[in-house]
Structure formats: C-alpha cells, structure tokens
Amino acid sequence: MAAPSCSAPGVWVRGSWQRLGNLFTFVSKPLCSAAAASRPLDAQRLAERLRAQKQEQKTKKPVPTNPVQRRVQELLQFTEQLQRVHPNVLAKALSRGLIHQDKDLVVINKPYGLPVHGGPGVRLCISDVLPVLAKMLHGHKAEPLHLCHRLDKETTGVMVLAWEKDVAHQVQELFRTRQVTKKYWAITMRVPVPSAGVVDIPIIEKEVQGQERHHKMTLSPSYCMDNGKTVRVRTSRNAHLAVTQYRVLSSALSSALLELQPVTGIKHQLRVHLSFGLDCPILGDHKYSDWNRLAPQLSACILKKLGLRQSKARHIPLHLHACQLTLPALQAGKEELNLVCKPPRYFVHSLRRLGLKMPSRDQNGDEEATHSGAQ
C-alpha cells in the first residue's frame, strides 16, 4: 500500500515537524525581539530622566547674598507656590492670619500674589478655598463663606467675607454707596507735589498700540491746555468718575510713603491716579510705570538703595497695601467696625532700605512717625 503524501494537509509525517518548527521559530523571534527591545527603552527613559535632573541642578538659581535680592526671590517662589498648594493648606494659612471674626463677618489678611477670582492660568484663588475655610472655622456642616468685595492679585491687606449671602449683599451695598472708608499705603517712586490733595480725574480703558498690544486704564480728563488756555473737552461716555485723596506720610530723595483714600472704586484707580496723574508710580507696578511698555521704570537711585540690578527689577512686588477699612454698623445698636492690617514683611523691608518711616498709632490714638525697623 502506497505511503500517504507528505504534502497532504492534516497528516502527521516527519517532514511536517520541520515546517512546524520553522513556523514556531518565525513566530517566536518577533516576540523575543520585542521583549528584548523593551529593556533598552526603559534604560533610555531612565537615562533621559537622570540627564534632566542634572540639567535642572545646573540651572538652579543660586541663593543671592544680598538680603533684598534674596527676599525678592523668596517672594517670587512664594507666589508660584501659592498656585500649587492644596486648598486645605491655603485655607489653614488664611485662618491663622484672621484679622476679625464674629457671627456675621470674617476678615482675612490677603497675601500677595493670590487672585480673588479664577481666570485663565489661575490654578487657585480665594473663592476656591472659601468652603474649606468655613469648615475649618465652623465645623464640617458650615456653609461656604461669601465674598463682599475684591482686591487685585498683587494687593495685600484687609479683605471682608460674610457667613450669609444676605450679609454679603448688605456689605456690597455699603461699598457701592461709598459708605465704607478704605485706606491704603503705597510706596511710590518720586514724591508728589503738593504733599496732600485730591485727584479728581475720570478713568477710561484704552488699547495700547505697539509691539506688545494690550489694554490699560488711563486718564480721561475733562479739561486740556490749548494755546496756554484751559479748555473743557467732551468726556467720553465710557469714562468713569474717579476720585482719590492722598497725603505723604514720609518722604526721601526719590521715594515716598503715601496714604491713599479712594472715594470711588474704579479698576486700578489708585495705580492710574498715582502714575499718570501725579507722575509717582507705585514701586513694583510693572503695568502702569510706563504707558507704552509693560516693564518697571526704576531710577538708578532706587535700585542702588534696594540693592538690585535693573535685570531684577521686574521681580519687585507691587507695594500697595490695604491697611485699614472702616465698616458702618450692620445692625442697630452695634458700633462701626474698624479693621487694621499690618503691611507684609517685604513692604517694611523696602521702607527701611529707602529710608522711609512708617506711621504707627500710640495708645491715645494720635498718629506719629516711627522707624519701620521698630515694627
């Protein structure tokens, strides 16, 4: 009987084992090569990670020996860290620095670099931590706190929160009707003349042309000079009434400490009135120090006193502090609330370096000037 053909399908013959062995070898080679390739890939990633760490260590900024430069670097790092911390950590920090607390209100000391509301590029803001802060102060069943007003991201100082929405609306109405007295401290470049007065110039928002196109608030005066004569001009319908009272508390050769009392509450009002109205921009105001550029304009005298180079001037924080807020009584039979907040450390250090004096109140309530180093 003839032997079956070795090419017939499904027949187990000696020649078929060779073909199956070749097939196994063909299939297993890619699998083995893939497993072998994965090992060098992991090693390559590890090597890249080590190189990145070494590069980060090389590019790590050295700690400045100058105390002012070191403080500026610390403040810049602190501002960046504020955007990365957990809301619980930020709420804990705010709770430790409470200025006032009662059954209606909570008053915090707003830190530098922390925005009040969210927006593009904002990871963390005060409004995000209000529920956590309320639970820390009143237990886990507490309702979130409510904002009563706002401060700019770079402004420090007194900020009022309310437990109930109705109370928040009541405080907001007091702000809107200008029944709240607000006082700020600002360190300015140059000394205003006269040393006390009122800036009553409307403010309007305009687009700045040039390489860096952006929008700024600016003055929209009702009068202008024409051939030596004062001429009234038509006020834009988009301009806002803006009034600021100011007085010099302390002055040096090229800088001053001012007390500011805004009568109105227009966006960036204090910064615009000081920079464009009095020609005394606030120290660290990189937006309004110059109309065309978003860059600080510091004199050589101020840089020398601060111990900074011009290349580091952009890291100087805004020296604008909400130092006092007087709130009328919210209910009959209660007294007005006078809230006072000390300036941050960098503010006090700048006063000392610039040779300025910070006022303080003695036990009788009279105001006197004392050296900032005594604080």
UniProtKB/TrEMBL annotation:
The keyword Mitochondrion applies. The keyword Isomerase applies. GO terms for biological process: pseudouridine synthesis. Residues 104-275 form the Pseudouridine synthase RsuA/RluA-like domain. Keywords: Isomerase, Mitochondrion, Transit peptide. It comes from the Eukaryota. It is found in: Mitochondrion. PROSITE patterns: PSI_RLU. InterPro entries: PsdUridine_synth_cat_dom_sf, PsdUridine_synth_RluA-like_CS, PsdUridine_synth_RsuA/RluA, RluA_PseudoU_synthase. GO terms for molecular function: pseudouridine synthase activity; RNA binding. It catalyses: a uridine in tRNA = a pseudouridine in tRNA; a uridine in mRNA = a pseudouridine in mRNA; uridine in 5S rRNA = pseudouridine in 5S rRNA. It holds the Pfam family PseudoU_synth_2. GO terms for cellular component: mitochondrion. Interacts with 16S mt-rRNA, mt-tRNA(Phe) and mt-tRNA(Met). Forms a regulatory protein-RNA complex, consisting of RCC1L, NGRN, RPUSD3, RPUSD4, TRUB2, FASTKD2 and 16S mt-rRNA. Belongs to the pseudouridine synthase RluA family. Catalyzes uridine to pseudouridine isomerization (pseudouridylation) of different mitochondrial RNA substrates. Acts on position 1397 in 16S mitochondrial ribosomal RNA (16S mt-rRNA). This modification is required for the assembly of 16S mt-rRNA into a functional mitochondrial ribosome. As a component of a functional protein-RNA module, consisting of RCC1L, NGRN, RPUSD3, RPUSD4, TRUB2, FASTKD2 and 16S mt-rRNA, controls 16S mt-rRNA abundance and is required for intra-mitochondrial translation. Acts on position 39 in mitochondrial tRNA(Phe). This is Pseudouridylate synthase RPUSD4, mitochondrial. It comes from Delphinapterus leucas.
